[in-house]
Amino acid sequence: MSKNGASPILEVRSISKYFGSVIALQEVSLELRPGEVMCLLGDNGAGKSTLIKILSGVHRADAGEYLVEGVPVHFESPRDALALGIATVYQDLAMIPLMGISRNFFLGSEPTAGWGIFKRFDMKRANQIARDEMAKMGIDIRDPEQAVGTLSGGERQSVAIARAVYFGAKVLILDEPTSALGVKQAGTVLRYVAKARSQGVAVIFITHNPHHAYPIGDRFTILKRGRTLGTFTKQELPREEMIRMMSGGEELEALEHELREFSNDTMLAAMADSLHEESKAL
Ligand SMILES: Nc1ncnc2c1ncn2[C@@H]1O[C@H](COP(=O)(O)OP(=O)(O)OP(=O)(O)O)[C@@H](O)[C@H]1O
Ligand SMILES: [Mg+2]
Q1: ∠ CA 39-5-227 to the nearest 5 degrees?
Q2: Given CB 3.0 to 4.6 Å as the disulfide criterion, which of 24, 33, 215, 244 pairs with 249?
Q3: pLDDT tens per residue, range 103-148
């Protein structure tokens, strides 16, 4: 089957979620296809994290349907999602800083049906696997028993992603994995995301950074105040348009004008200038 014709691995139909009087999501629908990277874009508070928390079994939707490989699901916890191969890497990673890399690598992946292969924890084997898997990502760990807390942010993200892929994730959900990273480390993570895709893993990638989204995204879903503005391919959404839609280009312009009104203040004028440069760059 062609990539575009493939049936969705995940699908939500008209999902809504309320927190008291806050409407976090309103009738959001989307589908994720095997082997694609879908970037989930939107401003702060748009509902991105809420949506992926529903997908990963942290929250339940108040309305709407959720299907995995065409079958309706009702997850009670993230374990239920994981059992179907839906793995999520959060920004505040579920890792134990004082524990070593390989211990963390196998953390929470005790053998259950179709998930993990170890009956007992074999440290030597674990170290070898952790080292090999990290090497595949281009990260050379000298000592797999090195405490995770001593790794850099990008290296920690990489351990979390490598672990999910190693344990057979079919869907990898990444909530802003590159936001705290420098250019080189973000590159490492992005390269690995591309690699996971080439192995047929479907990826949902949340980012505020259009320069991270554009090169690896196959399709882009844009959320705005809890609603989806739609899902677009690269052809449908040129880079400049995407950047405008996601980063509030108009707001930057408005702010620039506001600051101009105080332009006898040299500091504010300088700020307006730099905003002008920024919106031009966007
Ligand atoms: N547990 C909660 N209780 C109450 N309100 C919540 C809760 N979680 C999210 N919200 C609200 O739902 C809305 C969407 O939040 P969400 O975290 O999904 O946004 P986001 O798109 O991930 O934003 P950001 O880019 O800042 O991470 C916000 O108004 C937020 O305050
Ligand atoms: Mg969020």
Answers
A1: 35
A2: 244
A3: 888 876 543 434 455 555 677 888 888 888 888 777 788 888 888 8
pTM for the full predicted model:
0.79
**Which residue, 56, 50, 49, 65, is CA-closest to 83?**
56
Instruction: Please check whether residue 37 is in contact with residue 47, taking contact to mean a CB–CB distance below 8 angstroms.
Output: no
Lowest mean pLDDT among 172-181, 230-239, 265-274: 265-274
At which residue do the structure tokens 């882009």 appear? 220
- Whether residue 248 is predicted with pLDDT greater than 80 in this model: the reply is no
Do 38 and 161 reside in the same domain of the chain?
Answer: yes
Are residues 120 and 252 located together in one domain of the fold?
no
Mode of pairing for the β-strands spanning 10-19 and 63-68? antiparallel
Q: Are residues 135 and 225 in the same domain?
A: yes
For residue 171, the enclosing domain spans 10-236
Question: Which of 19, 174, 208 gets mutated to test ligand 1 (max ligand atoms within 8 A of its CB)?
Answer: 19
Q: How far is the CA of 48 from the centre of ligand 2 (A)?
A: 6
3-state secondary structure (DSSP) of residue 8: coil
Domain match, 130 and 70 both: yes
